[in-house]
Amino acid sequence: MRSARFWVYFASSVLALATSYLLGKDVMWDTLAYHLYAGFSALHDRFDQDYFAAGTQSYFNPYIYVPYYLLARSGLSALGVSSVLALAQSGILWLTYELALGVSPVERRSARTAFAICAVALAFANPILINQIGTSYVDILTAEVVLAAWLLLVRAVRTPSMALIVGAGLLLGAVSALKLTNSVHAVAACALLLFLPVGYGKRARYAAAFGAAGAVGFLIVMTPWSLHLERHFGSPLFPLFNKLFRSPQFPAATLQDHRFIPDSLADALRRPFVIAAPVTMTDDEFAVPDLRYAILLVLAVGVLLRWVWRRCTGRNRSAVSPYNNPVGRAFAALGCGFLLDWVLWLAASGSGRYFIAMACIAAVLGVGLIFRLFAARPKVGAYLFAALLAAQVFELCAGATYRAYVPWDGGPPFEFSIPKKLTTQPYLYLTLGEESISFLAPFMAPGSGFTDLEGDYVLGPIGPSGAHLKSLIGRYAPHVRILVLDSRLRGHGVGVPDAAHVEDTLAHFGLRAVSNDCLAITIKDVRQPFIRVSPSSLPIHLPQLAGEKIKVPVSPDTYLMTCGVVPDGGPHTALFSGEQRANLAFDRLEDACPQLFLPRRPVTQDYGDERTGYYWMRTYDDTGLAVMIVHGAVKLFDPVRGGSPTNLGPETQWETAPPRLACGRHNELYYAKVILPTR
Q1: What element of type H or E holds 650?
Q2: In what order do the strands lie in the sheet containing 558-567?
Q3: Residue 666, CB-side half-sphere exposure with 13 Å CA sphere
Q4: Among 134, 30, 34, which Cα is nearest to 81's?
Q5: pLDDT confidence tier of residue 577, bands split at 50, 70 and 90
Q6: Between these two residues, 256 and 341, which has the higher pLDDT value?
Q7: Would you say 429 and 407 are in contact if contact means Cβ atoms under 8 Å apart?
Q8: Do residue 309 and residue 171 come from a single domain?
Q9: Residues 23-76: tens digit of each pLDDT
Q10: What is the spatial distance between Cα 198 and Cα 207, in angstroms, rounded to a whole number?
Q11: Among candidate residues 423, 565, 421, 424, the one with its CA nearest the CA of residue 496
């Protein structure tokens, strides 16, 4: 207890616990959408009874979510669960402390400790990290593994060791298998191997051992789940990389989120300063301003200019470089690894959630550059660091957006009121909405199945996925139910919610919902709205759907309605003929601008009815765009970024003589416009 390390670790844990408590209960989007379901599916084979229950995330490696699932089902209160998670997540600050000690430019123990504490403080001042503390998000936990691996490599740069390098490779391979976005950090870590103080032959052997260890770690963690995916879908990484594996049950698409990827080199160079501004859609959906990357860039340029000036003026030309000693070499290796990681991260995703480990390294590098730049004037460096930390704290308080606050009530993480019929009789639940309702799966009757017809991958009746879904429905019949959010009268509604849309969606499968077999499910303390991409959430006025808009509940309770489903023999002539025309227009629109509409040929969704007219929509998960046919006009929307819809001409024109389009991405916004013919 006399060591500084103990008190830093203790303070980090207390800080994490306090942060989790102050931000409230975890009911964030992904927690409800797929985190609980993922842990559940890892321990219970769901392949034969579920189908895209939580959208495409249903089939990502789920093992990292097992601890959260076990905690949620352990009987602990929601506060207890979040506290355990916060304690585990505080380890990222411990690792930041150790990494800072390893590259500290000062030798005096008290100065090294002060250096490391400054790095920890700056690492914590990350709005994305703060928002995830105490939640089911695993980005911090996987970032801890990445940071531990990079710490081993930094120590290997100081004192080469095969054990350290193999250990780092195993960790990076395993964490890449748990979440493939971490593979960027595994590749970037190779830059640190270039700084090993050994000959080329031995360095090559170290690199080969690092690569082999990474492959072994990846295979050990990924193989059990990949065998399931290969057996059921014919792809070991389904639905990812389907251009390579070509599973018939998913489009041949990249499944890459392009929202935060820069458009050009100029946009990439501006990104550190863009992230510093309190605006949305930079490296996260919400405003999460972060000054550290801009600070790091400015400091790095300052160090470079000072070195050039001294070389040009002849000062200290004969002096030994501060980067020739083990500590300086480790610092330089860490900086080069971070730079490579930054480039790869921007090219792969640009999402701040996947950069938490590097954000901690950025804090270490930033403090290290301040210490080096002002080594002769330590008080100036201390004042500068204090000013920068104060500016970042001000951004955290004034510009950042945090998760919706839900107070602690002493109850469990999930509190439901589920009718007994649903906990004793297994059903197949057909859910509607972009927000998955798969978190209910562990609490329903054993043997119950779930499939989300309108998740990030919309399911329809055609193709191999349609055949699989129809087979699943046939296997459960007559025990099939629709399950949707009931936003009408807060649990007092009667019959099927959003009846017209439910009826038309089920009609494609030859089914209909029956209003005399509806049951309500009450979910306590979920104050975040369930959001779906529908005409009611897009910037367009549709009077007949105004009553179905989803709003933040006035009460802390949310209600779901489940109704029985029976075969339907109706012709639905207007529905199917209108959809056929809409599909022709949408297909030609996709062909006119393939870079905007990815993945191609998604299922067309319909809204409205025969009396008021139908509205048709397709959503494109890779680019986050949506197109609709509204009142006979084809319109382009960007539901994520907002803005006015773009009119791309009448539907009849796209059916007969499709116009030419100018389309692409500019200033990180998608655009499309009709090119008028010249006379």
Answers
A1: strand 646-650
A2: 416-417, 511-523, 558-567, 480-485, 428-431, 449-452
A3: 5
A4: 134
A5: very high
A6: 341
A7: no
A8: yes
A9: 999 888 899 889 999 999 999 999 999 999 999 999 999 999 999 999 999 999
A10: 12
A11: 565
- Helical ranges in 234-325 per DSSP H: 242-245, 265-275, 292-313
Q: Which domain holds residue 481?
A: 416-570
What is residue 484's DSSP assignment?
A: E
Residues 6+ apart with CB under 8 A from 628: 535, 538, 540, 615, 616, 617, 634, 635, 637, 645
Any domain includes 295: yes
321 pLDDT more than 80: no
Q: Is residue 521 part of a domain?
A: yes
Q: How far is CA 247 from CA 238, 241, 251, 614, 637, in A?
A: 7, 10, 8, 33, 30
Same domain, 558 and 578: no
* Dihedral Cα 288, 292, 297, 300, nearest 10 deg: -170
Question: What are the start-end ranges of the E strands in 418-478?
Answer: 428-431, 449-452
Q: Which of 382, 390, 456, 392 is nearest to 129 (CA)?
A: 392
Q: Are residues 527 and 633 in the same domain?
A: no
Q: Write down which residue in 368, 398, 428 finishes a domain.
A: 398
Average pLDDT, rounded, for the chain: 90
Paired tokens of 127: 């709005």
Point out which residues pair with 56 in neighbouring strands: 54
How does pLDDT run across 641-670, given as a tens digit for each residue? Answer: 777 899 999 999 999 989 999 999 887 788
Domain count along the chain = 3
Are 307 and 366 in the same domain?
yes
Distances (CA, A) of 17 to 12, 83, 129, 347: 9, 6, 13, 35
Select from 370, 303, 380 the least CA-distant residue to 121. Answer: 370
99 and 163 inside one domain: yes
Interatomic CA distance for residues 498 and 665, integer angstroms: 35
In this structure, is residue 409 part of a structural domain? no
Residues contacting 2, CB < 8 A, separation 6+: none
Residue 323 reports pLDDT greater than 70 = no
Measured at the alpha carbon of residue 278, what is the angle toward residues 272 and 279, in degrees to the nearest 5?
Answer: 90
Q: Which of 398, 428, 452 is the last residue of a domain?
A: 398
Residue 494 confidence (pLDDT) above 90: no
The mean per-residue pLDDT over the stretch 475-494 comes to 80
420 and 382 both lie in a single domain: no
Q: Is the peptide bond before 571 cis (omega within 30 degrees of 0)?
A: no
What count of other Cβ atoms lies within 10 Å of the Cβ of residue 317? 9
Specify the amino acid at residue 232. Answer: H
Single-letter amino acid, residue 108:
R
Q: How far is CA 544 from the centre of its chain?
A: 34
Strands (E), 57-101: none
| CA nearest neighbour of 457 among 446, 441, 468 | 468
344 contact partners, CB below 8 Å, separation of at least 6: 184, 187, 188
In a domain, residue 262? The reply is no
Residues 179 and 50 in one domain: yes
What is the reported pTM? Answer: 0.92
Nearest to 357 by CA among 151, 555, 530, 503: 151
Q: Is 533 found in the same domain as 462?
A: yes
Q: How many CA atoms lie within 13 A of 331 on its CB side?
A: 25
Q: How, if at all, do strands 625-630 and 633-637 pair?
A: antiparallel
User: Who's near 437: CB < 8 A, 6+ residues apart?
Assistant: 429, 431, 450, 452, 483, 485, 560
